[in-house]
Amino acid sequence: MYKVVLFDAYGTLLDVDSAAANLAGSGTYPALSDVWPELSALWRSRQLNYSWLRSLSGSYKPFWEITEDALDFAMDSLGLDNKDMRADLLSLYRKLDAYSEVPAMLDALDKAGLPAAVLSNGNHDMLADAFAAAGLSSRLAGLLSVEDVGIFKPAPQVYELGCKYFDAQPSEILFVSSNGWDAAAAGLFGFHTIWANRSGAPVERLPNAPDHIASDLSYVATHLNTLTG
Question: Domain 18-93 - what CATH class?
Fold first, then answer.
C-alpha cells in the first residue's frame, strides 16, 4: 500500500481554463467571448514551455512570474491590449476552480486512511491562495513546491521532494497528474503513476509510460479499491 498520494495541482486538481472561462462568462470583456479558449490554451502552453526553458538555461524564477509572462505573450498574440483584463485574469488564476470530482475523491482517500498532498511547479504563495480559495487546504497534508529546489518538473529533484517530506521510498508513493509528460517523469523516478488524461491525448513518446490511464480523478478511488479488495 502507498504512504501518500501526491497530486499535480494545475490541470489536475485545479482547472486552468476556469480563469479565462469565468471572466469571459462574466461579460465584462466582450473581446474575450470568442477567443478565451485560444487564450487559455496559449497561456498554458507558454507557461509550461517557459518553465522547461528556464530549467534548461538555469534561469529559475517563481512560477507566478512565469504565469504572468505567459499571459502577456498570449494576450499580445491575440491582440488583447487591456491592463484591466490582464489584472482580472491573474486575480482569477489565484483562485481557480477545482474539478468537480475532487471532493469525493479526497473523501475516498481520507476513508482509506491515505494522506493526499500536492507536488507542484507553483510557488508556495500561489498554491496557498489557490487551495484556500478552493476550500481544500485542510484536506491536504502538504503543498510541496519546486520553489524549494529552484528547478521545475520534470527534474528528478522535484519528485525527490515528495520522498523527503513523507519519509518514503519512490515505490511507496502514488503520483497523479493530468500531464502525460509529468506522469512519465514521475514513473521514471520510481513513483507509481496515474495519468488523468482529461483530453484523451495519445501516450507521450517518453522513456516511461504511466502505470494507469484514466479520464479523470474518480479513478483514484477505483484503483485504491482494487488494492484493498
Answer: mainly alpha
